[in-house]
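Methods — Computational structure assignment.
A single polypeptide chain was analysed. Its primary sequence is given first, followed by the predicted tertiary structure written as C-alpha cells.
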Amino acid sequence: MIDALLVLTGPETLTPYQRLDRREKIAWFEQWLLRERQEEFPATEQLVDGLYLRTIVIPEGSVLTGEIHLRGHVSVVDGDITIATEDDTKRLTGHHILISKPGMKRVGWAHAKTTWTTIHATALTEIARIPETLTTRIYPEIDAGPLPFDRRPGSMEVVCHSS
C-alpha cells in the first residue's frame, strides 16, 4: 500500500503542471482503493460558536482519502500518519496543527492510531446540513468556485482499511 503512496512523492517546489499530475495520481489512487474492502470511520461532530468540528479516529494500518475541501480550514492531528496532497508527501508523528487551503485533498496511511479533527467556520446552526457545504467530490467545483449548496454532491469520506 505504501508503495502506491510513494508514487506521490516529488520535489519540494512544484510547478502547476506537477500539481495537476499529483492530483491525477491521487484520483487514480482513490479509484484503486475503491476496489478494496471499505470501512467507515464514525465521525464525532460538534458545533461551538460558529465553529464546526469533525473528528475521526483512524485505526493503525488504514489507508484513506478525504474529500476536496471548498474553503480553508484547520486540522488538528495526533498520531502517526503519512499524508500525500497535490503539494507534497509528509509523515506526521505526534501532535500537529495544519492550515489547509481551499481545494485540498489528501491521501493518508496511518502507521499508528491517529485522531484527525477538522475545524471549519460556518454560519449554519444545523449540524446535519454543514458537511455538504464544506466539501466536493470533483475538482471543477473548486476550480470554478463554490456552487450553491443545493447543487453540490453530498459529503462522504472514502476509506479503505487494510491491516
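Note: The chain has one domain: 2-143+153-161.
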